[in-house]
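FAQ
Q: What does a multi-component entry look like?
A: The components come first, one per line:
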Amino acid sequence: MKIHNTRGGRIFDAANYVFLSIIGIITLLPFVYVFAGSFATEAEITRRAFFVWPEQFTLGSYEYIFATPAFVRALVTTILVTAVGTLVQLAFTVTMAYPLAKKTLRGRNVILSLVVFAMVFSGGMIPTFLLVKDLGLLNSYWALILPAAINPFSLIIIKNFFQELPAELEESAKMDGATEIGILWRILLPLSKPVLATFALFYAVGIWNDFMSPLLYLSDNSKWTLQMYLRQVTAASDLLGTGNVDPNYIPPEQGIKFAVIVVATLPILIFYPFLQKHFAKGMLIGSVKG
Amino acid sequence: MAAPVIDTLAGERTRKAAPAPRKGGRFSVHFAHYKWLYLLLLPGVVYFAVFRYAPMYGVSIAFKDYVPFLGVNGSPWVGFRNFEDFFANPDFLRLLGNTLILAFLNLGVAFPLTIVLALLLNEVRLSILKRTVQTLVYIPHFLSWTIVASLSFLLFALDIGPLFQFLNNAMGTHIDFLSDPAWFRPLIVLQDIWKNTGWGTIIFLAALSTVDQDQYEAAIIDGAGRFRRVWHITLPAIRSTIIVMLILAIGQMLNTGFEQIYLMTNALNREVADVFDTYVYFVGITQGAYSYSTAVGLFKSLVGIVLIFGTNWLAKRFNQSGLF
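Then the predicted structure of the entire assembly, as tokens:
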């Protein structure tokens, strides 16, 4: 499209480009500051108001946190819970999506309606908490995984994906005597790798970032996840009036807070290129079908 | 391992009984043919029954006096007493006020900003700049509220935080933004803008990409400038998207985001910080008033449903395409 630009248009463009660049940079600045601060000395953090490059480079904050058992435990726990949780949630979702993709299955429409209903209505915080409590899952990591095992949204998108795969694939496998489980495992799953990777990321980010579930279900602070640990470390100690804080709490130095934030953010930033690509797509699918 | 043996046997049988049972035939025949599919369905169905539908049934304790020892079924009915208690409680109006003010700040500030940012991005013809800015402003969406709150704690840290120093120097004050009740709401809105504005543009940008380019050319021939083209062509073209997003936002009005508010709440700003979601947590989980807090949560959900249907009705009333 040819749009010949007027003088006013060029001025607008220039202003717009500058403005958007500033917005982009401002969005990034808190990270840059925290990243720089995590490598700075305590004295520099308190002395300099803002900086993007430490004058004196030190690994002290990282050495400290990786020598702190509570932090290491929270980090390892979170990595394990995220890994196992993602697999469990993906398995639950895929095994349910596959039969629902079969239009001949009886009861399919009833189940699908119930799934959609559960998208809109939920029991809410307290009934869910009481259920988890009655199931004996309090202070168990399963409480972070099972209540969110199937995201109805992801389920329906995966189901639609299975439905769109050519039926001939399955028919020929059936001729060779494969069961539905065999077909799912050996034929459909290898074909759906990109889709499954997307939803694995969905689930992984959900578990990694989750703060509400550990807050509700893990009262034993030796079981805390990284987000819980982060909260305890960064909240100013004199302001904590909201419960769930370790009574033996000693306020850490600033640099340590910076380092813990960097560790908690890093995995998200590493996966960010994939996240941006797939989540944007997922959001648009959702908006069309939702 | 036993699994492959079962697999093979079932395969043999399938090969012999190859034709699928006819539609409307006996269920036992249908079931026998599709038993593996039903087996695969089982974990999912159990999940929905236990973790989605059992809590919905558990909502009934809003009308009961829940005693953990007696369970959901055994606890005695009390009718609407929990709701009456809540409406009579002075907390009710305070929570309603706090929740609505935050909701309107979000609708009035964050929502229009998202549209403005989308329009500005849409005007960019330098694609590398557009993509770079998009990449940067989408990042905060993926971070947890814990990280957003932690960043806020550091940036506004008393005496040493960069924003604490910058803002207080600019205003000539010494305000602790993190605990001053007057600054709680601006802080929440600021966090919301930082975290969600960029990501929120995706839907609007998608709608903007479908706008008919011929209309722009016609408008240029008619001598319409940049702003008039945006006003008369671009905005009307994405009006239905704006309305749908607005209906959704209004339906979510009372969902102020538990994690964000909880993380930013402290002993000093409690009075303005408490909203329905955090109140349910404090009263229900920390104080054990299960029935009462369930009633509060149920009230909130019902208002949300009324809001979404009400806005949808209004949108149709004014000849706009609604959500449903």
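Q: Is there any commentary attached?
A: Sometimes. For this entry: Residues 238-244 of chain A have pLDDT under 50 and may be disordered.
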